[in-house]
Design goal:
The complex is a heterodimer of chains A (about 220) and B (about 300).
Chain A: E1 2-6, H1 9-16, E2 21-27, H2 30-33, H3 39-56, E3 61-67, H4 73-76, H5 80-83, E4 88-91, H6 95-104, E5 110-112, E6 114-124, E7 127-132, H7 148-151, E8 168-169, E9 172-176, H8 178-188, H9 205-209
Chain B: H1 6-12, E1 17-22, H2 30-39, E2 46-49, H3 61-70, E3 75-80, H4 86-98, E4 103-107, H5 128-141, E5 157-162, H6 172-182, E6 186-191, H7 195-207, E7 215-220, H8 226-235, H9 243-250, H10 257-273, E8 278-283, H11 292-298
Parallel strand pairs in B: 1-2, 1-8, 2-3, 3-4, 4-5, 5-6, 6-7, 7-8
Helix pairs in contact in B: 6-7, 8-9, 9-10
The chains are: A alpha/beta (about 220), B alpha/beta (about 300).
Chain lengths: ~220, ~300
């Protein structure tokens, strides 16, 4: 999933200060799962903002909504009845949702309430870690199911570098060395021979090397 | 002979090669490069010129190499994949060769996290093994990495690094084998303090016959003080400094520690001279370049062969 973290309160206060009426919009997908921008976080942020402006004695109105998917035009359409009643939208979804609202409502300011972080997995309750950079040409079959591009600090396709120590990355002892993980998996799979196949220089075009990407499925496109 | 590199000629002749390094200055003063390189005249076969080492901005390796070349010495261009994509690397390689620089070292480079621009993006378009493949293709096939023909290919003698002390140890020989497969000509190793472990690694290297496919230069860094030994042990990633090394240098009075450090490095050189597959020594006297002539002389490496 896409992970996110809420921006600091002072940034959000600065964002909404020029406006009197705010539509605060959450998303029921990834940001709900990573507890950054779902219905619950929308309610919490709404209360915090109301309290702040009440203390300041500044008139402030906020409407809360949480869409099924903010990155989908069909659901963004649900904002139509409310959009004229607000001065700006504060979105708690990932950057995709923020931009979908900006695209649909051209004359309404839209502000991001979270920092979109990465595509990752939950390692344990409350901990998410990066797993995929969306390079567009999945090589996991060659690296025992562990991605060195997403998980090696130097994105080495032929690692590990000389800084791997006791299974950890030289950059931060909290980061597992991706190549130690790959090596351990290759051993477990009885495939250590595969390690010595040199992986060639990557073609970055399917990543972002050929500009912003798009998928067109002719069978589905209308 | 693949190239005109003096280092290649010496290694091919079977004599132990000696290299050292010169870290370029943090500014535009050519004299700083020239003073450091002058200390190494006549006592080494090639002068490694580091490329933004420890991820700190310095005079470019290429520019400093040219200054050193103009002095009549043999510079060795270090190039990290951290700061340049494949276009920039190849243009610098042909640029270097156009100035007569014919020996280089392909590295991934220290992570920006450790340097003075921690907010910089790390490029890593290719890795060090792919860089070796690229330079070999440029030299042997006369082709750019992208496949187009080079008008006047650079004939580089290609080096890479190896750290026998990093983890997991069991794949350190295999990683060298990958570099050999990529086409590396010579290796300069991480600084060796744990000689037993290095010898064990060399055993693995010989078992696979890799020492016959690549020249291995053993990395040597003299300790200046007990403080440096402790720093290297505890703070430098991928460095293996055994307790007895720290103990020995800490056991002598402060004013004698530098001499003790030199003695220790000479003992290491003496022991490794007899290890089959060690083709030479890479002496990295960090900010202590003026000690290199003394080390080389006391190690019995003078005079250097000329070709």
């Amino acid at each position: 999933m896409i992970t996110a973290e809420r921006k600091p309160m002072e940034d959000l206060i600065k964002f909404v200060s020029p406006y009197r009426r705010i539509l605060l919009v959450g998303c029921n997908e990834c940001v709900t799962v990573c507890s950054a921008g779902g219905r619950k976080e929308v309610a919490l942020l709404s209360s915090a903002l109301q309290m702040h402006f009440m203390k300041e004695g500044k008139p402030f109105e906020i409407k809360e909504m949480t869409l099924e998917r903010q990155c989908d035009p069909e659901y963004v359409e649900e904002l139509v009845p409310y959009i004229d009643q607000v001065d700006a939208v504060l979105s708690m979804s990932c950057g995709c949702g923020v931009q979908e609202i900006a695209r649909r409502f051209k004359e309404k300011p839209v502000l991001p309430a979270v920092n979109t972080k990465f595509m990752g997995a939950s390692e344990r309750q409350g901990v998410w870690a990066e797993r995929c950079v969306g390079c567009g040409d999945c090589g996991l079959a060659r690296t025992a199911g562990i991605c060195p591009i997403a998980r090696c600090s130097k994105q080495l396709l032929n690692g590990p570098c000389g800084g791997s120590t006791r299974g950890k990355c030289e950059v931060d002892p909290d980061i597992d060395c991706a190549w130690q993980l790959i090596w351990d998996r290759l051993k477990a799979l009885g495939m250590t021979d595969k390690y010595e196949e040199n992986l060639p220089a990557k073609d970055w075009r399917p990543a972002r090397g050929a500009g912003p990407r798009k998928i067109v499925r002719e069978d589905l496109a209308s | 002979m693949k190239t005109e590199s003096t280092l290649e000629k010496i290694l091919a002749s079977g004599q132990l090669a000696v290299t050292s390094e010169c870290g370029p200055p943090r500014g535009a003063l050519p004299s700083k490069v020239q003073e450091k390189a002058e200390m190494l005249r006549g006592c080494v076969d090639a002068v490694n010129v580091t490329d933004n080492q420890t991820a700190m901005v310095r005079m470019s390796s290429l520019a400093a190499c040219i200054l050193i070349k103009q002095m009549g010495l043999n510079p060795l261009l270090q190039m990290v994949t951290r700061d340049r994509n494949r276009l920039a690397m190849q243009s610098d390689i042909i640029g270097a060769y156009s100035h007569g620089i014919n020996t280089m070292l392909c590295l991934s480079g220290d992570h920006p996290h450790f340097g003075d621009h921690p907010g910089a993006a790390a490029v890593h378009d290719i890795d060090s093994i792919q860089a070796v493949e690229m330079v070999k293709k440029m030299r042997d096939e006369g082709l750019f990495q992208g496949g187009q023909k080079i008008d006047g290919p650079p004939k580089m003698f290609i080096g890479a690094a190896a750290n026998p002390f990093a983890d997991p140890f069991e794949l350190r020989v295999a990683r060298l084998a990958k570099k050999v497969k990529a086409g590396v000509d010579f290796i300069q190793t991480q600084c060796i303090y744990n000689v037993d472990k290095f010898e064990k690694w060399m055993e693995g290297v010989r078992e696979r016959g890799l020492h016959e496919k690549v020249y291995i230069l053993a990395g040597i860094t003299p300790m200046k003080s007990a403080g440096m030994a402790k720093y290297m042990k505890n703070k430098v990633p991928g460095m293996d400094v055994p307790d007895d090394v720290v103990k020995r240098i800490s056991g002598v009075p402060k004013e004698n520690q530098a001499e003790e450090g030199i003695k220790m490095c000479l003992e290491t050189i003496d022991r490794l001279k007899n290890v089959k597959g060690v083709a030479g020594f890479h002496i990295m006297a960090i900010e202590w370049e003026h000690k290199v002539p003394e080390i080389v002389e006391r190690a019995g490496f003078l005079p250097r062969p000329s070709f």
